[in-house]
Amino acid sequence: MASTDEGDTGRSSVVLYGIEDRPPLGEAIPLGIQHVLAMFLGNVAPPLILAGAVGSVTGETTFLVQMALIVAGVSTLVQAFPVGPVGARLPIVMGTSFAFLGPLIGIGNQFGIAAVFGAALVAAPVEMVMGVSLDRFRHYFPPLVTGIVVMLIGLTLIPTGMNYAAGASAGPSAQGYGSFTNLGLAGLVLVVTLVLNQFFEGFLRVISVFVGIAVGYIAALALGVVDLSAVGSAGWITVPVPLKYGLAFEPSAILTVAFLYVITGMETIGDISGTVSATGRDATQDEMRGGLIADGVMSAFGAVFNALPNTSFSQNVGLVNFTGVASRYVAGIGGAVLLVLGFVPKVGAIVSAMPDAVLGGGALILFAMIFSSGARIVAQNVTLDHRNSTILAMSMALGLGVAFRPEVLQQFPTEVQTFFGSALVTGGFTALLLNVLIPGGGVGTGPTEYSDGLAPETPTDIDEAVPESAAGAED
After folding, report:
1. Model pTM?
2. What whole-number distance in Å separates Cα of residue 244 and Cα of residue 74?
């Protein structure tokens, strides 16, 4: 039976296990694995897509997947069991972030993969500073601004998802692009995922994307379009290689990634609030600060070990609320499982052997869900009056404009083209500046805290790998 109590705010709490409770191992282990299942695809998809899109790491997919698993495992353990001021002491599950994927693909193709990890490393202190001076930062990023950026992330990733669904990350010029086999596999993943999401309840709904991908993978095996040679040759154990690709520092790349760290920092605030609210209280300043600092520190750690920036995953916030298990020890078990998987190259090889079309079917849903989450942030928290509608329209127009027609910036220096060539940066800065400059709203327009109503019913995490946010699932 669930125990019912009330937190320090008088809100009702119905949890099976509180934050400091330790469930019996027979329960804790499967609950920890459930956390891994809920976030697995969202964690491995960014390195899979990056490896396919950036020529300098072609053939390195297995290694990048391993590093993503290892860094996510360490980051989750640090959030659950802090090291000094680093960590929230909460069941926060971490993973690689979709927010950075589009800009990092552009940076990787222009400057090389070393510039990707260099920018991620140098810009990571942005979130640490946010943790130390939280109250000063959050008022500049109300739901109107953050929602616009989240929508732009989803929209600008959709072309990448379509390329994968058509069977070739390289684009229309690739052989087999848009073949019936590829489109059929992608369509199968889409259909299975949507059926599970819309017509089933409970855990099947939570991992619907994961199941859809698995069904598509099995179908691809049956059709004989999966090359498993790399799985047979992969070893059973590996040791991480720090700075395998080196580091390069490009100012425009660093500024772009720094801006995105601010956005993911605001999402982490929402995830922490949503997790703690399950216990009937508000998150403390120390929990917020520790969680943000951990985001920054572990993203820097990830850059050293060849992984994309890490952030909290709100699908796992949803699991905490859905299951009533708020134990940080359960999340810690999930982190340990991720760590173990990361040290086994055969796991990375199996994931890397997935055909582009299968990944594309799941990626399209993920990217569409990102847009949906951003739209919901705006719809539920912002009054679309004349002022706010203008900010929304201009931000989307300029952001998508530079994405569709990057040639408009061709007269500017390369650094300017890289920075403002990102739809997220141009659209996000437009929203940020207009929100401050246009009278009627002020700096803090809309709620300044991403807590009640945003997590888990409306996740703010753009790495959402579970299509509950669009389905409107309730706790």
Report:
1. 0.72
2. 19
Domain count, the chain: 1
Residue position matching structure tokens 């027979």: 26
Cβ contact 146:266 at 8 Å: yes
Q: Is residue 474 part of a domain?
A: no
Rounded to whole angstroms, the Cα distance separating 28 from 37 reads 14
Interval 207-266: pLDDT, tens? 677 788 889 989 999 998 888 877 777 778 888 889 999 999 999 899 989 988 987 887
The C-alpha atoms of residue 208 and residue 40 are separated, in whole angstroms, by 12
Per the structure block, which two tokens stand in for 80?
């659950």
Contact 280, 9 (CB under 8 A): yes
Q: Before 456, cis peptide (omega within 30)?
A: yes
Q: Is residue 340 part of a domain?
A: yes
Q: Residue with structure tokens 């130390």?
A: 132
DSSP 86: B
**Distances from the Cα of 441 to the Cα of 17, 135, 316, 396, 451, angstroms:** 42, 18, 33, 19, 21
d(CA 134, CA 164): 39
